[in-house]
Write the structure tokens for this entry.
Amino acid sequence: MNRFAIHKDPLALAIAVLLAGAAIAPQAHAAANAAGADSEAATAASAEVTEVVVFGRGETRQVTQLTASDLAQIAPGTSPIKAIEKLPGVNFQSADPYGAYEWSTRITIRGFNQTQLGYTLDGLPLGDMSYANHNGMHISRAISAENIGNVTLSQGTGALGTASTNNLGGTLQFRSLDPSMDGGAKLAITGGSENTRRVFARLETGDLGEGLRGYVSFTDQKADKWKGVGEQAQKQLNLKALMPVGNGGQLTLLFTGSDRAEQDYQDLSLEMISRLGYDWDNISGDWALAKQLATAYQTGGAFPAPITSVDDAYFDASGLRKDRLGALSLALPVNDNLDLNAAIYRHKNRGQGTWFTPYVPTPGGAPISVRTTEYGIERNGLTGSLTLRAGGHELNAGLWFETNDFDQARRFYGLSAGATPGRSAQNFQSDPFFTQWDYQFKTKTSQLYLQDTWTVADSLKANFGFKSVKVKNRATPVTASGGAVNVTSSIEAEEAFLPQAGLNWTLSDTQEVFFSLAQNMRAFVAAATGAAPFAATQTGFDAIKNSLQPETSTTAELGWRFRGEGYEGVVSAYHVKFDDRLLAISTGPGIVGAPVVLQNVGAVTTNGIEAGLAWKPLQDFSLYGSVSFNQSEYADDVVDGAGVRTALKGKQVVDAPEFMAKLEASYDTGKFFVRGNVNHTGKRYYSYLNDASVPASMLVDAAAGYRFGALGFAKELSVQLNATNLLDEQEVSTIGSNGFPNSDATGTNQTLLTGAPRQVFITIDARF
């Protein structure tokens, strides 16, 4: 049996149940109407169904929301971004069971990749959530999942006021829990596979007088890697305080701090998986072998079997991040018809990505050195909006300004030739023997928007507006060598008019139709690595700076929402034209960090349909499912600077599966609960020419628990068991970890990561 084969019969069963539910629910609704069912009762039943998944009722675009009750049943420590993988159109992948390992975390929505989506926390911009870490922070570092109140996904470009210059595709908006009016504490302790140990503690002040209240939480999590030697650890502090002001206003203070250190898994190829096995990893526990491999490479010697290349196994690698984010926000009703919202924020980050490289020996020491890519972020910004209600109109005007000082450097640190390397990948490195390059990037972002939402009639709502965006990037070298841009350079992305329009037509108490049309732009990346103009040589940058265009998208979607007694659902169709796609063409192996040539390479055309259904056929039993069909194709061939043509026209976009299906069944009596999730992802290409792919996969997660209620000193006590990849399937999770090649017919491109096997965790949760 193929090690990556899928179970077709369970998938067929899952899809059949989902589609049967979609067919039965409208019939049940029709029968209820025939019997003269009360529409208010139907609406109340629908509200009960949507405690977990909310399908954006009344919105003019496709919007889906997950609530805190859904997040509570995922494995503690799981990234909240993983929780949305069951929503329509979402492809999420990660090599760890929590979806928090940033090197491997990937999300695509309607053919757009992770860096082409927008992310906010309480309206504060999180950047593009890329590993290169140039303009924000990952949501896993921004807030503990226990402190999230809801997650809202807009599969299209999202609202005009979203503070993002990345959201060509969807937006993810995370909202933190508000402090409780009641004082108390929550303590949750988790243990399980790979020596996982996690403690989450939250202290609530309760009402201190006049509505002033707050909470502070601390999270400490550690887990061994599921293969190889190493650890992934994080400590996190969250603080939130609310103070009522004026007549119905509120002042909010938010602070979050995170220290994260995660040792990496080895990037693999299909050939390596076949030759070395699914569980192959870095050789972090064998310093002598690491030195032997590096010496063999540098002297032309033989590698010990089964290793055939110095890139088969590195000694170690890691991602290190320290973040501090603080914000003060005000929501104030000025009068009955005018509301003011404003926020100021500051974010500081220090980061290092380390790699024990056999390509560069330590002078006078080991045949290996530590190569780092180092990051320093200092962002300051403000957001503001006014909402005016006049007759049937609601006018919104808003702004977002941000300055981002980003430092990025490539340095090398020495290692000992003795019995130990003398340095740990879990620690920030100091005292380099060589700095290859060091740049300071300054980005200024300005975004303004204006929108009118017009209630034309009780059954018809329309909105129209636009935003103006201007982003200026400037790079100044501190140390420049190794081929990248080496003089002060700047580039600008600007669009004065990016329109958005939408309609929502209520057909009845239980049905509505929506339509939206939106244009958006993605700003250039200000970094010396990745798909950034500044990653080119000076000659390359000078050649493209006046002709390079920022990526843009035009998204149209049409949908139908329906609900009734015991069910609620949505079906939507969409068309997307993605223009001026940017492609970074490397001039050497990705792992070495060779300069790239960035160029516009044409368009992508996307058409798709997606559906979601929540159905509660019995008092304590509910089903949720979603299916999506997506056809994202390159509309143009690519011609590089040398005139070489790559025939991409008509090829499927990489890491954009055509078919996905998700099914969730849950049983909850209020005391005992059990839930199972089935997630099928279709075949995914990882070469632009579509000659290399990973097969379809189907993963099952499960959770079960018991709520004891008041017990001893605890007001509430519960025990929860979580299992990820319950059937212990072997599959390739992340693709494109080192970028996507034009072709990989031989299966030797080292750009894949395998997913974690079955992992089991138990949590004891007490509230006092």
